[in-house]
C-alpha cells in the first residue's frame, strides 16, 4: 500500500513539471530577427509606411479637399462632406471615411515605421549591399519628413519623433514651433538627398527620389515663409524657400532629369450656338501631365500606387446623367475659379476690353479648355451629346450630384470615358510635386524678396521669368507689363497663375490658407452662372452671375490651423490644441 | 413526417417493455410477507408512497395510515427502499427477514439543514461545514421545463443567477448564464464541460457556486462562477425505470411589428420630403398599396405572415434505467429531443438530437472503487442555407430588412427580385439548396477511488481522467431558380432574367470543426473526525488541455495546470474554518514565471447548533458564513492579440496593401507588419472576492431564508492603454498589453421560500432576487477629459449619452435657442439635446452620465401547489428596475431596413419619435430619448400535472404515472411588449430567431 502511495506521488511530481504548459513550437509566427535580417522582408516591412499617403483625388476621400475651398463644390453625397464644409473639423475626424482628416492624422503609424527602420537597419548589415541599405534609410528619412509636412500643412508644428517609443516612455511632449518643425523636415530631406537615387528602375517606380526630397524641402520652406506662418515676414525664410526651389529647378535643368511636358499639338472643343456647332482650337498636351501615360518627367513626387489603381477617380468629376452611380460625383467648379482663367492675350478677363461675358468661351487660356467643361460643350464619346449645364438642363437639375454652378471639371476626366464608350479611366496621376510648381514657388519667393524682376544669387532666372516659363509651355504670352508694377501686383498674378496651373491638384486649399486669404468672402462664397435660353446671345444663352452664392464655406480664424483630434488634444496638457478649438 | 416520430416513440416503449420483461424473468427466491408502517419524522403516516424490496422484487403502496404489506427475501440480507419527493431517499436493511422496527421513518428534505451533502469541485461536504454561498437544485425540479437546451431550465430558480436567451434557432440556441453579473462555466461530473445538450433527466443535482471559496480549488479556472452538475448514478438496492414522452408546439413569443406597404411608403415619402428630396411613391402607388389593387406593381407582402409558421413542433422522449446492488450500480439513459424551425415555405429547419448515457459505479474490492461516466450525443440539423454556403438562411433577418413593397415574389410563374432587394425568399427556401450539420459529441470519464485507510486512517486517493470530443461537420448544397426583374413600361410589364437557374448536383462536404478536451486529476483526501474535531484535507493536482481546430492564428492548445490544497476544520459542528490554496499555472505568462499562489479563507458558525439555541422552537437552522480570497483572471480578450505570446513581438505577412511599386503595380503586395507588440512585463489580473451570508430555516422548517452580500474586485486588468497613449506613439497596432484597469462590484442576493400544508394542499411559494452593481475604479481614458465625461469613479452600469430635451417643435424654437447640434442643420421634429457644458454647441463634449443605469435587480418567483395528485408549478422571472437602449434598427430609419411600428408615432403625429430622415444623424445618437424602462416580467415556466394514485398506477406495474402540460415563455409584461419587442433580448425576431413560447403535453412513468 505504501508503495502505491509512493508511485502515485511520484507520478504527480513527474506530471507536475512546468513543461506541461510549454507552448507548441513554431506557432508564434515571424520574429523580429526573421524580418530584419532579410533584405526583402525588411523592405516589405518598410513599405508599409507608404500606406498613409493621401489620395486627394480619390472618390473614397469624402472630404475631397477641392470642395473645401473656392475651387468648387461637391454636394452632401456623404455625411463627411457637409460636416467639413460647415467648418466642424473636430467632428470631421469622427465622420465616415474622412481620409483628409483622420487618414492623414493616422500617419503617425508610418512615422513609427520609419523610426523602427532607422533603429534596426544595423541588423541588415552583412545581409544586404550598402546601396540597398542606403536606399532603405533614405526612404525612411524622406517618408518621415513627408508625413511631418502633411501635419505641418494642416495642424502646424509637432514634436519631431526620431525614436521608437516604448510603452513606458514619457509621451507628454510639447509641440515644436512651425519653423522648428520645418527645419527638422528639411534636415530629413537633406539626409534623404544623400541616400536616394535620382531615378528608380521600372520595378520600383513610385519610390521617392532625390528630386522628391528636394521638392519636399522647397515646399516646406515655402509654407514656413508664407504670411500665415511667418507673420513677422522674416525675409530669411523667403530666402530659404527661393533657394530650395531654385535647387530643384537647377537640378532639373542641369541634369535633364525633369522637364516641363511640352504642349505643341492642337485640339478643339465644339459647342452649340444658335448659328450651329462652333469649334474652338487650343493648344493640346497639358492633359498628358495628368493622364493617359504611366510616366512623365514633369512629375517629381506622386502617389504612384493610387495613380496606378486610380480607376475610380473620374467618377468624382462626372455627373449621374453621364455615368450613373458614384458615391460622390459632379464636382462643380465655382464661377469664381472659372473667372481666373485669362484671355489668350494674357489679361485677366476684367482687364481685357475684348472679353465678352456673353461669349466667354472663346480666346481663353488653353488651360481653361483643359480644366473646365462649359454649357453646350460636347464631352462624351457620343458625337451628338452636348453638356446641358443651362438652368434645368440634364446636368444641372438642382440635384445632389449635378452641377451647382453651371460648370463641370474636366481636368481629371479623360476623353471618351463614360457609360457609352465602355472605356475605363486611364492612368491618372495623383501628383504631389511637379516641376511647374517649383517654378511658381521660386517666383513667389523671389518676388517677396525683391519683386518681379528679382533673381536670387546663383539663379539665372527672375521671378517673372520663372512664371513665364510655365506660361510659355501652354502657349500663353508672358505676364503683361501692367501686372509687374509692384511686388504686390505681381503677387496677385502669381496667386492667379497657381490657381489656374495647379487647379484641382490639392494645392489651392493650402495655398489660400498659407496666404491668409481663406477666410475672405471671395474665397468662401461660391457663385454660379445662370444660363437662360436667349437666341440673341452668342452662345444661345443669356449668362448672368448668381446674385447670391450657391454655397458658402465656413472658414474662420481658427480654421487656419486644423484642430488636433480630441483624443490627442485631451491627453496631455503639454500637447496643446490649436487656438480656437 | 409525424409517423417518423411516432415510430421513434414506439421503439422507446419497446425498449421499456424489454427492460420490464428481463426483470420479470429472473429466478425466484424464497420470500415472506411483512407488514410495517411508513411515517415521517413527526410520526405522521405517509400515505400513497411506494415501498420496494430489492431481492424479493416486490412493491407496495402505503395506505392512509401509512401501513403496507410487502414480500421480502426470507433468508438473505434484504433492503427496503422508499423514494418520495420532499423526503430524503430511505434505504432500510433487513437481516434474516426480520424488520428491526415496525415503522420506517422518512426524513424531510429541507432547503437548509446541516446534514445535507453538497458537491464541490474535488470534495463533497456536509452543508454544516461549508462556508460557501452555494445553492442546490435537483434535476427533478427542472423537469417541468420543456427545452432542448438544459441551461434554459435553470431560469429563475437561483438567487444571483440570470439565464438569458440569445438566439433561439433550433440547434443553435444560445443561452447565457451569468451569476452575480459574471458569466458562469459548467462542470459536469467534476470536469469543465459544455452543458447545453445535457438532458434534464440525467441530471442529479446542480450546485450553483456563487462565491470564490466554494470553487477556490479550481485555481484560475475559478475566475468565473461555477455551475457544478452531477449526473445520476444508480442507487444500491433499488431498480428503477423511468420513461417520458412529450409533444408540443412552439411559437414566437413575440415578433417585431413591421409596417405594411402603405405605411412604409408613406413614411418613406415623408422621410425624403424631410430631407428635401422628392417623394419616391406617387399618390397612385399609395392608393394601390392601400387597396392591394395592383399587387404586381405595388406589392404588399407581410413576410412574417407569409414565411413564418404560426407554430412548430417540439418533441421529447426519454427512457432511463437505474439500479444497483452492493457491488455495482448503474444508470443508463436514452434521450431524444427534436425541434423545428419557423420557415413556412420550402426547406424548414429540422433539428433532432439523440443522447445516450451510461454511468457505472463498481466496487472493485474492499478498498478500490471505479466510477465510469460515458455519454454521447448525435445531433443533426437540416436547414435552408444561405447563398450556397453552410450557414442557415437568415429568414428572420430578411423580415427585418425587406419592406413589404420590395417586390412581388412571383409574376407570370417567374421568381422576382429587384435591384435594391436582390433576394427572393421563396427561391432561397425552395430552390436555394440546404445544408446539414451533423455533430457528435462525447463526454467520457472514469474515476478510480482508492481507500488508503490501511496506510493512514481517513486517507483516500482519487484519480480521474476524462476525454471529451466535440465534432461537427456541415455539408451543403446550393442552387437557385432563375430570377427575374420586372420592367414597367406604361401598362406593359416585361420580365428580364437577372440570375440563371443553377442546379447543384451533389452535396458538398463542407466545414468541419472539432474540440477535444483531456483532463487528468489526482486527489488525495484525508478525512478524520476525532471527538468533536473534524478535519478534512484535500490536495489536488489538475491538468487540462483543450484543442480546437482553427485556433487563430496558429495551432496552440490551451492548457492549464493547478496544484491546490484545502483544509476544512470543524469543531463540534458549530465552528468551521477553511483555508484554500491554489498554485495555478497560466500559459499566457512567461516561462519560469507562470505560477501564482492564490489563497482563500473562510469561516462558518452554525448558531442553531449552539446550546443556547437548543430551546428555540422557531429557529430550526441558522448558519453564518464568510469567505474572502484571491484568484487570477486568465481573460485574454484583446482583439488581434495572440494571447499565448503576449511577451513577444510577433510579425505577420499581410498582403493587403497596394503600394504601386515593386513591379507589382496594380496588385497587392506582401508587407511585413507587426502583429502584436511584446509586453515588457505584466501579470495575470487579480480577482478578489468577499462573501458574507446567512442561511436559516424557521418555524418548523416551513420558512427558508438566505441572504448574501458579495464584493468582487478585478484589478490589473488587461489594457492597451490606447486612450492614454497619444497618436505620436505610432498607433494602436504597436501597443503592448499592460495591466491597467480596476473594477469594483458588489451586491446582494437572497431568497425566501415558504412551504406549508393545509389539509391535503401542500404549497410552496418563494422569491429570489439579486441586486448587482459596480463601480469603475480605473479605466483607460484620456487624462485631460472633462470630469463629467470620465468613466472612472462612475457606476459601471451607468448610461452615458446625450440628455434629450424633447423634440424641436418649430423653426422658431431652433432659431431662438441658437445652439447648434453636431449633425447638420436642425429641423423641427429633431431631438433637442441639452447643451450640458453650455458652450452653445451640442457635440461629444456634452455626452455625460445620464444618471440612469441598466437593470440591477433581477428576480425569480415560484409557486408550487400539490393537492392529491394534482400539481401546479410556476416560475416567473423578471427585472425590476433600470433602463435599456432600443436597438439600432428600431432607432434608426434606414433605407436598407424595414420600418417598425414605433416609427408611426413620428413627429409631428406625436412626440414619441423624432421626425423621419434618412440623412440626418441627429436623432441616431445615444441619448436619453431612446432609453426604455428595463423592467419586465415573464411567465417563464408553468407545469400542470396529475399523478395517478399509486394504488392505481401500481396495477399497470408503474410506481408512478404522471400526465402533464408544460409551458415556457408563456407571456411577457413590459412597457414595450406592445411593439413585439422582448426586453430580455431586444434583437429577438429581427437579428436572431424570436424567443419561443413552447407548450408541451406528455406523460412520465416510473416502473
What does this structure look like?
The complex is a heterodimer of chains A (581) and B (1007). The mean pLDDT of chain A is 88. The longest helix of chain A has 25 residues. Chain A is 37% helix and 8% strand. Chain A has a domain of 175 residues: Alpha Horseshoe (Serine Threonine Protein Phosphatase 5, Tetratricopeptide repeat), CATH 1.25.40.890. Chain A is mainly alpha-helical. Chain B has 1007 residues and is mostly beta strands. Among the domains of chain B are: 78 residues, Sandwich (Immunoglobulin-like), CATH 2.60.40.1120; 116 residues, Beta Complex (Ferric Hydroxamate Uptake Protein, Chain A, domain 1), CATH 2.170.130.10; 226 residues, no CATH class; 58 residues, no CATH class; 95 residues, no CATH class. Chain B contains ten helices and 58 strands. In chain B, helix 3 packs antiparallel against helix 4. About 0% of the residues of chain B have low confidence. Chains A and B meet through helix 1, helix 2, helix 3, helix 7 and helix 12 of A and strand 31, strand 33, strand 37 and strand 38 of B.
What key attributes describe this structure?
heterodimer; A: 581 residues; Serine Threonine Protein Phosphatase 5, Tetratricopeptide repeat; 37% helix; globular; B: 1007 residues; mainly beta; Ferric Hydroxamate Uptake Protein, Chain A, domain 1; 22-stranded antiparallel beta barrel; 5-stranded mixed β-sheet; 47% strand
Topology summary:
The complex is a heterodimer of chains A (581) and B (1007).
Chain A: H1 2-15, H2 32-36, H3 39-46, E1 72-73, H4 80-85, H5 89-92, H6 99-105, H7 108-120, H8 130-154, H9 178-195, H10 210-225, H11 235-255, E2 265-273, E3 276-284, E4 299-302, H12 304-308, H13 314-317, E5 332-333, H14 335-338, H15 366-371, E6 372-373, E7 408-409, E8 431-434, H16 435-450, H17 463-473, H18 487-501, H19 508-515, H20 521-524, E9 525-526, E10 529-533, E11 541-545, E12 551-552, H21 566-569
Antiparallel strand pairs in A: 1-5, 2-3, 4-8, 6-7, 9-12, 10-11
Chain B: H1 2-24, E1 31-40, E2 50-53, E3 59-61, E4 67-73, E5 78-82, E6 90-94, E7 103-106, E8 117-120, E9 123-126, E10 134-138, H2 139-142, E11 161-165, E12 175-179, E13 182-183, E14 185-188, E15 191-192, E16 203-209, E17 226-231, E18 238-252, H3 261-274, H4 283-291, H5 303-307, E19 312-324, E20 328-340, E21 350-365, E22 368-384, H6 395-401, E23 410-411, E24 414-417, H7 425-430, E25 434-451, E26 459-477, E27 479-480, E28 483-489, E29 492-499, E30 502-503, E31 512-530, E32 533-548, E33 558-571, E34 575-586, E35 595-606, E36 619-632, E37 650-657, E38 669-676, E39 686-698, E40 703-715, E41 718-719, E42 738-739, E43 742-758, E44 761-778, E45 798-801, E46 804-807, H8 811-817, E47 820-821, E48 831-833, E49 841-842, E50 848-853, E51 857-867, E52 870-879, E53 883-885, H9 888-891, E54 931-933, E55 936-947, H10 950-953, E56 960-968, E57 972-974, E58 996-1006
Parallel strand pairs in B: 1-7, 14-17, 24-28, 47-49
Antiparallel strand pairs in B: 1-4, 2-3, 2-5, 5-6, 8-9, 10-16, 11-12, 12-13, 14-15, 16-17, 18-19, 18-58, 19-20, 20-21, 21-22, 22-25, 23-24, 25-26, 26-31, 27-30, 28-29, 31-32, 32-33, 33-34, 34-35, 35-36, 36-39, 37-38, 39-40, 40-43, 41-42, 43-44, 44-51, 45-50, 46-48, 51-52, 52-55, 53-54, 55-56, 55-57, ...
Helix pairs in contact in B: 3-4
Amino acid at each position: 500500500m505504501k508503495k502505491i502511495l509512493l508511485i502515485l506521488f511520484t507520478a504527480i511530481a513527474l506530471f507536475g513539471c512546468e513543461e506541461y504548459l510549454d507552448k507548441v513550437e513554431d506557432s508564434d509566427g515571424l520574429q523580429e530577427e526573421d524580418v530584419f535580417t532579410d533584405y526583402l522582408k525588411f523592405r516589405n516591412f518598410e513599405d508599409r509606411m507608404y500606406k498613409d499617403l493621401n489620395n486627394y483625388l480619390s472618390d473614397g476621400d469624402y472630404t475631397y479637399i477641392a470642395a473645401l475651398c473656392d475651387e468648387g463644390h461637391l454636394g452632401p453625397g456623404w455625411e463627411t462632406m457637409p460636416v467639413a464644409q460647415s467648418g466642424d473639423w473636430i467632428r470631421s475626424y469622427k465622420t465616415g471615411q474622412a481620409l483628409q482628416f483622420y487618414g492623414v492624422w493616422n500617419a503617425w503609424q508610418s512615422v513609427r515605421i520609419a523610426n523602427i527602420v532607422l533603429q534596426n537597419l544595423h541588423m541588415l548589415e552583412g545581409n544586404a549591399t550598402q546601396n540597398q541599405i542606403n536606399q532603405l534609410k533614405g526612404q525612411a528619412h524622406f517618408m518621415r519628413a513627408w508625413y511631418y509636412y502633411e501635419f505641418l500643412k494642416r495642424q502646424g508644428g509637432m514634436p519631431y519623433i526620431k525614436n521608437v517609443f516604448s510603452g513606458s516612455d514619457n509621451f507628454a511632449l510639447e509641440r515644436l514651433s512651425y519653423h522648428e518643425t520645418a527645419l527638422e523636415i528639411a534636415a530629413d530631406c537633406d539626409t534623404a538627398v544623400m541616400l536616394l537615387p535620382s531615378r528608380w528602375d521600372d520595378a520600383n517606380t513610385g519610390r521617392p527620389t532625390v528630386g522628391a526630397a528636394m521638392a519636399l524641402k522647397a515646399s516646406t520652406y515655402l509654407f514656413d515663409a508664407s504670411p500665415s506662418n511667418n507673420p513677422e515676414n522674416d525675409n530669411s525664410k523667403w530666402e530659404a524657400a527661393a533657394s530650395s526651389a531654385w535647387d530643384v529647378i537647377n537640378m532639373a535643368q542641369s541634369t535633364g532629369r525633369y522637364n516641363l511636358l511640352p504642349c505643341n499639338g492642337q485640339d478643339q472643343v465644339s459647342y452649340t450656338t444658335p448659328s450651329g456647332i462652333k469649334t474652338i482650337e487650343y493648344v493640346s498636351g497639358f492633359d498628358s501631365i495628368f493622364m493617359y501615360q504611366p510616366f512623365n518627367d514633369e512629375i517629381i513626387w506622386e502617389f504612384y500606387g493610387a495613380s496606378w489603381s486610380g480607376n475610380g477617380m473620374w467618377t468624382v468629376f462626372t455627373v449621374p446623367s453621364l455615368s450613373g452611380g458614384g458615391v460622390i460625383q459632379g464636382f462643380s467648379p465655382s464661377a469664381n475659379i472659372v473667372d481666373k482663367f485669362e484671355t489668350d492675350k494674357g489679361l485677366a478677363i476684367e482687364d481685357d476690353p475684348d472679353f465678352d461675358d456673353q461669349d466667354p468661351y472663346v480666346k481663353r487660356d488653353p488651360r481653361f479648355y483643359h480644366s473646365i467643361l462649359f454649357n453646350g460643350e460636347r464631352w462624351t464619346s457620343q458625337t451628338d451629346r452636348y453638356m446641358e449645364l443651362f438652368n434645368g438642363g440634364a446636368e444641372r437639375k438642382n440635384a445632389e450630384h449635378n452641377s451647382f454652378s453651371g460648370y463641370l471639371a474636366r481636368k481629371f476626366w479623360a476623353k471618351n470615358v463614360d457609360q457609352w464608350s465602355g472605356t475605363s479611366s486611364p492612368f491618372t496621376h495623383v501628383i504631389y510635386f511637379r516641376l511647374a510648381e517649383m517654378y511658381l514657388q521660386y517666383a513667389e519667393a523671389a518676388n517677396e524678396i525683391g519683386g518681379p524682376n528679382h533673381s536670387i544669387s546663383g539663379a539665372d532666372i527672375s521671378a517673372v521669368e520663372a512664371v513665364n516659363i510655365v506660361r510659355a509651355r501652354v502657349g500663353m504670352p508672358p505676364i503683361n507689363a501692367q501686372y509687374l508694377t509692384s511686388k504686390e501686383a505681381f503677387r496677385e498674378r502669381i496667386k492667379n497663375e497657381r490657381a489656374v496651373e495647379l487647379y484641382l491638384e490639392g494645392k489651392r486649399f493650402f495655398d489660400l490658407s498659407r496666404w491668409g486669404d481663406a477666410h475672405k468672402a471671395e474665397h468662401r462664397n461660391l457663385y454660379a452662372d445662370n444660363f437662360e435660353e436667349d437666341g440673341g446671345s452668342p452662345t444661345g444663352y443669356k449668362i448672368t452671375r448668381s446674385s447670391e452664392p450657391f454655397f458658402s464655406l465656413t472658414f474662420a480664424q481658427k480654421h487656419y490651423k486644423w484642430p488636433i483630434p480630441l483624443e490627442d488634444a485631451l491627453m496631455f496638457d503639454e500637447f496643446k490644441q490649436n487656438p480656437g478649438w | 413526417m409525424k409517423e417518423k416520430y411516432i415510430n421513434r416513440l414506439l421503439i422507446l416503449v419497446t425498449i421499456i417493455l424489454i427492460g420490464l420483461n428481463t426483470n420479470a424473468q429472473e429466478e425466484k427466491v424464497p420470500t415472506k410477507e411483512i407488514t410495517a408502517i411508513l411515517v415521517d419524522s413527526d410520526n405522521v403516516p405517509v400515505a400513497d408512497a411506494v415501498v420496494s424490496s430489492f431481492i424479493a422484487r416486490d412493491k407496495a403502496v402505503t395506505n392512509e395510515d401509512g401501513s403496507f404489506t410487502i414480500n421480502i427475501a426470507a433468508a438473505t440480507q434484504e433492503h427496503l427502499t422508499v423514494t418520495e419527493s420532499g423526503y430524503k431517499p430511505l434505504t432500510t436493511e433487513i437481516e434474516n427477514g426480520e424488520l428491526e422496527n415496525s415503522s420506517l421513518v422518512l426524513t424531510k428534505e429541507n432547503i437548509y439543514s446541516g446534514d445535507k451533502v453538497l458537491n464541490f469541485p474535488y470534495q463533497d461536504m456536509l452543508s454544516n461545514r461549508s462556508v460557501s454561498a452555494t445553492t442546490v437544485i435537483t434535476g427533478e425540479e427542472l423537469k417541468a421545463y420543456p427545452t432542448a437546451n438544459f441551461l434554459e431550465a435553470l431560469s429563475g430558480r437561483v438567487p444571483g443567477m440570470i439565464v438569458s436567451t440569445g438566439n433561439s434557432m433550433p440547434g443553435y440556441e444560445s443561452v447565457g448564464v451569468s451569476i452575480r453579473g459574471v458569466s458562469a462555466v459548467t462542470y459536469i461530473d467534476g470536469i469543465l464541460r459544455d452543458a447545453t445538450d445535457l438532458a434534464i433527466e440525467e441530471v442529479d443535482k446542480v450546485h450553483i457556486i456563487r462565491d470564490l471559496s466554494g470553487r477556490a480549488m479550481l485555481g484560475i479556472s475559478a475566475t468565473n462562477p461555477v455551475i457544478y452538475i452531477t449526473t445520476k448514478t444508480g442507487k444500491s438496492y433499488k431498480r428503477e425505470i423511468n420513461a417520458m414522452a412529450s409533444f408540443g408546439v412552439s411559437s414566437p413569443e413575440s415578433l417585431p411589428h413591421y409596417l405594411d406597404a402603405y405605411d412604409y411608403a408613406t413614411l418613406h415619402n415623408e422621410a425624403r420630403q424631410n430631407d428635401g428630396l422628392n417623394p419616391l411613391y406617387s399618390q397612385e402607388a399609395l392608393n394601390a398599396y392601400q387597396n392591394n389593387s395592383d399587387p404586381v406593381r405595388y406589392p404588399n407582402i407581410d413576410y412574417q405572415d407569409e414565411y413564418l409558421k404560426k407554430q412548430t413542433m417540439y418533441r421529447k422522449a426519454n427512457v432511463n434505467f437505474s439500479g444497483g446492488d452492493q457491488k455495482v450500480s448503474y444508470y443508463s439513459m436514452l434521450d431524444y429531443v427534436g425541434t423545428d424551425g419557423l420557415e413556412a415555405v420550402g426547406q424548414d429547419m429540422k433539428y433532432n438530437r439523440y443522447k445516450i448515457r451510461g454511468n457505472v459505479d463498481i466496487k472493485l474490492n474492499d478498498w478500490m472503487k471505479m466510477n465510469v461516466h460515458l455519454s454521447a450525443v448525435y445531433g443533426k440539423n437540416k436547414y435552408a442555407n444561405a447563398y450556397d454556403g453552410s450557414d442557415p438562411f437568415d429568414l428572420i433577418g430578411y423580415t427585418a430588412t425587406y419592406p413589404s413593397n420590395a417586390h412581388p415574389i412571383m409574376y407570370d410563374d417567374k421568381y422576382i427580385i429587384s435591384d435594391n432587394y436582390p433576394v427572393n425568399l421563396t427561391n432561397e427556401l425552395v430552390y436555394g439548396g440546404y445544408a446539414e450539420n451533423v455533430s457528435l459529441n462525447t463526454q467520457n470519464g472514469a474515476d478510480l477511488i482508492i481507500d488508503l485507510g490501511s496506510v493512514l486512517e481517513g486517507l483516500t486517493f482519487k484519480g480521474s481522467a476524462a476525454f471529451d470530443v466535440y465534432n461537427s461537420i456541415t455539408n451543403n448544397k446550393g442552387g437557385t431558380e432563375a430570377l427575374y426583374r420586372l420592367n414597367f413600361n406604361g401598362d406593359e410589364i416585361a420580365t428580364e432574367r437577372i440570375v440563371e437557374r443553377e442546379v447543384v448536383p451533389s452535396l458538398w462536404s463542407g466545414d468541419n470543426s472539432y474540440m477535444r478536451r483531456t483532463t487528468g486529476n489526482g486527489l488525495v483526501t484525508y478525512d478524520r473526525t476525532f471527538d468533536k474535531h473534524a478535519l478534512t484535507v484535500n490536495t489536488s493536482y489538475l491538468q487540462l488541455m483543450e484543442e480546437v481546430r482553427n485556433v487563430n492564428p496558429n495551432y496552440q492548445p490551451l492548457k492549464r495546470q493547478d496544484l491546490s490544497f484545502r483544509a476544512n476544520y470543524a469543531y463540534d459542528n458549530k465552528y468551521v474554518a477553511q483555508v484554500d490554496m491554489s498554485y495555478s499555472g497560466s500559459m499566457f505568462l512567461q516561462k519560469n514565471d507562470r505560477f501564482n499562489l492564490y489563497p482563500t479563507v473562510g469561516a462558518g458558525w452554525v448558531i442553531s447548533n449552539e446550546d443556547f439555541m437548543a430551546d428555540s422552537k422557531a429557529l430550526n437552522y441558522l448558519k453564518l458564513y464568510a469567505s474572502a480570497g484571491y484568484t487570477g483572471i486568465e481573460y485574454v480578450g484583446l482583439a488581434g492579440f495572440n494571447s499565448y505570446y503576449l511577451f513577444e513581438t510577433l510579425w505577420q505577412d499581410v498582403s493587403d496593401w497596394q503600394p504601386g511599386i515593386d513591379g507589382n503595380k496594380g496588385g497587392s503586395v506582401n508587407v511585413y507588419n507587426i502583429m502584436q507588440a511584446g509586453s515588457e512585463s505584466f501579470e495575470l489580473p487579480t480577482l478578489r472576492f468577499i462573501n458574507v451570508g446567512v442561511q436559516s430555516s424557521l418555524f418548523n422548517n416551513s420558512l427558508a431564508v438566505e441572504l448574501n452580500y458579495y464584493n468582487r474586485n478585478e484589478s490589473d486588468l488587461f489594457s492597451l492603454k490606447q486612450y492614454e497613449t497619444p497618436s505620436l506613439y505610432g498607433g494602436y497596432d504597436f501597443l503592448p498589453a499592460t495591466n491597467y484597469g480596476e473594477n469594483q462590484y458588489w451586491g446582494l442576493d437572497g431568497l425566501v421560500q415558504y412551504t406549508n400544508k393545509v389539509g391535503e394542499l401542500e404549497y410552496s411559494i418563494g422569491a429570489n432576487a439579486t441586486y448587482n452593481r459596480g463601480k469603475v475604479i480605473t479605466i483607460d481614458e484620456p487624462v485631460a477629459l472633462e470630469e463629467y465625461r470620465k468613466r472612472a469613479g462612475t457606476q459601471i452600469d451607468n448610461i452615458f449619452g446625450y440628455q434629450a430635451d424633447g423634440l424641436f417643435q418649430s423653426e422658431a424654437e431652433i432659431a431662438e435657442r441658437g445652439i447648434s447640434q453636431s449633425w447638420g442643420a436642425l429641423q423641427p421634429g429633431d431631438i433637442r439635446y441639452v447643451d450640458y457644458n453650455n458652450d452653445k454647441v451640442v457635440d461629444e463634449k456634452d455626452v455625460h452620465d445620464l444618471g440612469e443605469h441598466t437593470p440591477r435587480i433581477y428576480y425569480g418567483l415560484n409557486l408550487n401547489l400539490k393537492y392529491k395528485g394534482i400539481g401546479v408549478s410556476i416560475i416567473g422571472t423578471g427585472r425590476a428596475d433600470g433602463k435599456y437602449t432600443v436597438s439600432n434598427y428600431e432607432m434608426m430609419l434606414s433605407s436598407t431596413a424595414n420600418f417598425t411600428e414605433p416609427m408611426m408615432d413620428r413627429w409631428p403625429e406625436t412626440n414619441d419619435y423624432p421626425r423621419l430622415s434618412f440623412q440626418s444623424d441627429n436623432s441616431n445618437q445615444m441619448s436619453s430619448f431612446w432609453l426604455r424602462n428595463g423592467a419586465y416580467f415573464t411567465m417563464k415556466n408553468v407545469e400542470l400535472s396529475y399523478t395517478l394514485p399509486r394504488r392505481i398506477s401500481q396495477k399497470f406495474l408503474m410506481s408512478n404515472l404522471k400526465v402533464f402540460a408544460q409551458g415556457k415563455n408563456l407571456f411577457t409584461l413590459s412597457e414595450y411588449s406592445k411593439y413585439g419587442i422582448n426586453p430580455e433580448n431586444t434583437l429577438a425576431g429581427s437579428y436572431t430567431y424570436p424567443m419561443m413560447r413552447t407548450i408541451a403535453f406528455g406523460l412520465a412513468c416510473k416502473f
